[in-house]
Give the backbone structure.
Amino acid sequence: MKEILQVMDLFAGAGGLSSGFEQLENFKVKIAVEINENARKTYELNHPGVIFHKDITKLEYRNENGSINDDYKDIDVIIGGPPCQGFSNANRQKNTLISSNNNLIKEYLRAIEEIRPSAFVMENVKTLASEKHKFFVENNEEDDLDKLGIDLVDEYINIGAPPEELMLSLQLFLSEAYNSKTELRPYLIEKELYSKLNLLLKNLNKSNEELILFIKKDSNKRYFSRVLNSNWESNHISYNQEYKVKWIELGDNIRNILNDKETNISKLKINLKDIIEIQKSINKISEIIDYGIRLINIDVQKECFEVHLKSYNVFQYIRKRVTDLGYSINDEKYIFNAAQYGVPQERKRLILMGILNNEQDQVKPVKVPDPLFHNKDSFNKIYDAIGDLESVIPSTEVAEDFMNRGTNGRLIGNPLNEYLNNHAINGIYNHVRTNTREMALRRFKVLAEGQNFHDLDDSLKTTYSDHRRTQNTIYKRLSYSKPSDTVVNVRKSMWIHPVHDRAISIREAARLQSFQDSYVFLGSKDSQYQQIGNAVPPLLARFIAESLLESLGIKVERKIRDLLAPTYKKDGTISEVAGTY
């Protein structure tokens, strides 16, 4: 095995996974793929010299003769976290049936199949292993799935409730479109107009007077006036004459409202509902055609259309595919809690590791990392990560991304804080927070450590239309004595500093994700918060990287657990810090 393993990082984001791997001298990232511009800038700054690609679907790993292209010949390890939103009963009523993100997992698997690296690591949401995440069976795919032993499930999905008098004609139109693979986008309302009409639909339960006022609201009036005067009738193709009449009548009724003319409001409501339901059906069949999904039937049920498709579980498919390609995987333990590996955050993620078996070798076992902490009480806390920054006042300007720390030093004797404070100079990057508006500040001031939006008085909840649906992590005052909840975009969640009435800074969020201070983020303020929330905690990634090396038969010279775990005296008190940074 080579001394330095060349890595390709797919869906690289800001580079959390790569950061953990490159803390070991055995790994060097050669190629990274990331479509988000700001995340790419951050990645390139912290991993100079990496070959970057934007769109994974455009990558060609082999040439027309089937030989692997030069850039990919020496790739030893593929890592990455392909997004997968999944399909579930809960989202059947949404306008979108299929997430384009789902197929990105297949792109990740394509890279493994064509490059055949010695090892791979795939990170994802822990629910990937649940029944929620499914693929729909594509055309000409069933034989391959049968060979892999994949279980198929019948899915009957409501795709819209068009008016009864148009059901048969629409069913015939959509069936013929599917069979002939007709391009259905010309039959769909232009996206912005559809969004406006959908918003109008949500206001149909208002009184006629309120509905008229909504349509005549300045922004809506300007928009509808422009569309009605330019391309209403030609906005999209009507699939038949009855639909065309409804579309024209809807436009006439909206125009009459704008011109203060007599309007048939009940007719407007009926036509709007019918058009939206027809559009839902056309859009979902359009998706089925575009993604090459096998459609068994379109059935007319009571008051709705139902499509019959087949699906299969994503995680079962991943495991079967990679084992069929000759990889051993960690098939028993694949859910990891970052807090057990030193990250000051409760974050459970699915991590699948694979080691390629040679044809002549026996199956190679995959070693998973042993937890640093087994007891929840021993998890690193928020104070361990950010306590040393308490007196360092953050900026509110993203351009001011570096500041002097003055006399505020690291927490001496605290292994995690020593690890995070790895910057050689007496300064800190990205200690920038979001601006705080008056209402937010009022909320900040009354919330104690551990409390959240639901602990506020009702008088401080008035800006939310339905505050009962607010998540427990919104307006969360962090507690120094506990690990944090899963770090997302904490700017949107309005996480509050444990002792100061302010939002936590970008650097503090990065610390909670276990990014060391030498890792600098670029882009807008919101983008930096988002990059951090999307990342794999580097500490967890390093534990995974060490176990991968051991699975490959390579000795790890300096293990992270030896750096993070303090040594203890017989009386249980800390004797010294185990490592230096």
Summary: The first strand starts at residue 5 and ends at 10.
